[in-house]
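Lecture notes, structural biology module. Today: joint structure prediction for complexes of two components.
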Amino acid sequence: MLIFDQLKKSDPPLRLLSICVLAGVGILIAGLWYVQIVSYQRYEESLRTQSLRTVRLPGVRGKILDRNGNVLAENRPGYNVNVYLEELRPYFQSEYLEAKKRLKAKTLAERTTAGKVARYTVVSNLVYSVGGVVRVPLTLQDTNFHKHFNERIWLPLPVMQNLAPEQVARFAESAANLPGVDLEVQSVRYYPHKTTAAHILGYLTAYEPSEDEEELRYNYRLPEFQGKVGVEATFDEELRGSPGAKNMLVNNLGYRQSESLIEPAQPGRNIVLTIDLEVQKAAEKALAGAKADAHGAVVVLDVNTGDIIALASAPTFDPNVFVPRITPDEYSKLNDPATKPMFNRASFGVYQPGSIFKIVVGLAALERGTLRPHDKFTSTGYYQLTPRSRPINDTAPAGIYDFERAFYLSSNSYFIEHGLRSGLDSILAMGKRFCLGEKTGIPTRQDLAGYFAEPGTDRKYLGGPWLAGDTANLCIGQGEIMVTPLQMAVMTAAVANGGKVLRPRLVDRLEPADPYSGEAVIRLPPAEVRSELGVSPRNLQIVRDAMLADVEHSDGSGRPAHVDGFRVCGKTGTAENKIGNTLQHKTTWFASYGPYEKPRYAVLVMVERGVSGGKTCAPVAKKIYEALVAMEKRPPGQPILATMQR
Amino acid sequence: MYETDLNPRQSRIDWLMIAGLLGLMVYGLLFIYSAKSVEQTASILQQYRDLNLWQFARWLFGQDYFKQLIWYAGGIGMAVAVCFVDYRILARWSMVGYWATIILLVFVMFFGSTKGWGARRWIDLGFMSVQPSEFAKIAFIVALAHFLSRPNEELRTPKIFWQAIGLIALPFLLILKEPDLGSALMFLPVGLAMMFVGGVPKRYIGMLVGSGAVVAGLLIMDILFSDLLPKPLRIELEPYQKRRLLVYFNRDFAPPNATEAERRRAREEERKYSYNIDQALISVGSGGFTGKGWCQGTQNALGFLPRGVAHNDFIFSVVAEESGFVGSVIVIMLYTVVLFTGIRIASQARDRLGKLMAVGVVALFFSQVFVNIGMNIRIMPVTGVPLPLLSYGGSSVLCSLIAAGIMQNVYVYRKSY
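The predicted structure, tokenised, for the full assembly:
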């Protein structure tokens, strides 16, 4: 090259100078190559770390719908007021200059303090003005503000959450001249029917991030909720969808400069339940009206499909109170140990079944052949196991009984006699065929197995030898047995459907949020048959006829459940809860199905501390059957539009 | 009107060097514009539409890239003016120029403006701030060239040697006192190169290099192992200079026996002092091979690269971030063209005076380029040395172009007619 000619010239000092220059240029190029090519990744990484903040965006939570598409859980817009700090920088600056003068700040520390004071003054005045606009006294805690400023300056500062509609209106009207303040819309879970089906739906709590590696890439996650119990919890992943992310570009002081969406959040799937909203409401209303301050449970099953049409537990609660945040007051109310409103009594409460267990005992004795339904049995009005033992009371009067009369009058003496004749193991084996002592598998995270002894057992649940008296007690559904109302509903359904013990279905299908997205609807499989009773149809029919008589016979204990034009079959139960020999209270039951000719529904009612199964529970069942009849008359697939109550 | 005068000489101008200089000036305008574009609220077209002519002119004169353009124009004018007078005639006035700048340097020590930087380096003229140290470099080159262009026998005498050292030492010490270590140090390689090429005997040169090495060694010892050195051998640096060097050597600020609180404070301070260089490195490094594109760099836009230095001392970071390795190498190549055409001019000069003037300018350009770019990639410590023609600043641009004019002058008058 022409310009390097002097390297060859015979002027040694100049040649040395040329070599020095060339060497210097070489060093610079090598250095640049090292920094820009070899170390590129490292510096690019540093650049990202210091100027990018990644924020996790939650997906919109899927809806929960009833079988007809009525909304049980959805999202409503929640309005929050935020302060955008980067827009306040000019105000910080002018306030700082004044604060510096006022505080006579000279040293660096003093000036830093002046800056802190100035920023707090600006934002706190602003918050006060916002309070004036929405007519709620608002104050800004200085520690909170400084913490936010130091740690998350690039995020808007939340000032007020969950504004009421009139506050939103006031804000929109007059906050335009407040600098750096804006409304933010947040999706908030909303249960339009409030307490209805609360135990099925469950509730949400703030999502606590796991410490997964994957989660480390976020600098901040926008508030998200996760299901705690109920369908909200079991299907949390499907409902939650997949999170998105946005990158915020921040400047050297940390203020937000701009933001870009790098991955949009995907909404969660909608969940369609097997519940019928109207029947559910009717069931809850009927249960609540069973007695003053009723505690109890109702289960309505489709006996052929195992679908849960309604499942109620009283007392109940409003899951709306959990979002966005539950107040301590509400929290203590919901955790009252005396009422336990969040406790799902239908699947999580265990009780003694009382006389409704006679369905199992009767079937066992019939199958064993030790009971012939038309044989006469003379009851003395009490049952004495041995001359020396304590007599077991009978609510049925003394007299002559065959199977049907003993069933509808619920004679303890008759069933103890035949239970003992049939033998403990035959009862336990029959109970096992009904899957007693096993969880039903309802997907609400509140599911108990209860207790039912294994055939061949000789020890009691709490220890001690199994005596004949324990067997006698078991024959009338007391003592060594604990069941959930849902288990009893499944039992009743099995009698109704010809012997199939089903796993109850609560969720019918998962639908994509956008029905036109082309994403497939996921249908959950039909109810699993957990067990076949394997009893002879003739014996089953004997029990069914006796259940019909319990409601239709003029003396039947279940007579109050009679519905015109819909033949209900049932069995009442009144379990006595004693401490020592004193009666504490009674758990009252009514297990039923209908119609007799072609059974479609099983309705189980349980009320704690009731008077008797017939008096307390049967009327509840009657109202529910009426609702079921109304449901059948409704044109199919016509959702009753959810009434939006706010 | 000058054309008739200039035409016979036109063929004798070094066009290659001028192409290199123009290339650098184009780069300078583009990236000063980019470095300042964040602070801009409206584009030039928008302003032209919205404002009347007077307002528009006022606005334009407030823009740094436009001011730089004016400095370029002024500098080119001064360079052309320099070419009109034979350098031998210029050299006769060299001592006047030298002493004039010395007086300015003394003046600036007492009445200079600090521009809020803590060092007194500027004379505020209202419409511009003059940095006398820049002009002192030019005056010094001409004066030393004039002083050294004497018979070889005289150059061998110690008296001449020590007088030359004195010529270097006077502005060096005055500028060091401002304090402006970077600018002061520029005198040493320039003086050394000129004495070497001028024919000062090798042993003197060797002595000079040797004593320079000893001073540098003591300086480094002082910084790295301050406790081991006996007191009389210590060199007292300004605290900020010492910290910059500590950052360069990647040393802890805290003394070895510091308490935890002291250590924390020292770390805090260290971060503060290494901040600029760290951010410059991130800018340069994240530019990668092809860069992020003009006006697309984030380091400067987001303020990580401090706004106060992005357009002057650290302009190269902006260039490297936005134009990448390719752009950085193009800038270095443009400087290489200027430097080697300068050396060629030196080799073709008609006398020692011309040769030494060209060598002095080449050495000055090279030192500044090496120190400034080196600082951006951390092979040199941070000093306030501008990048010739690229950094924003009137004094620096004018002096760089005058210096280029001197080289052209030597080229133009390389033969006598």
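Point to remember: Chain B touches chain A through 46 residues (CB under 8 Å).
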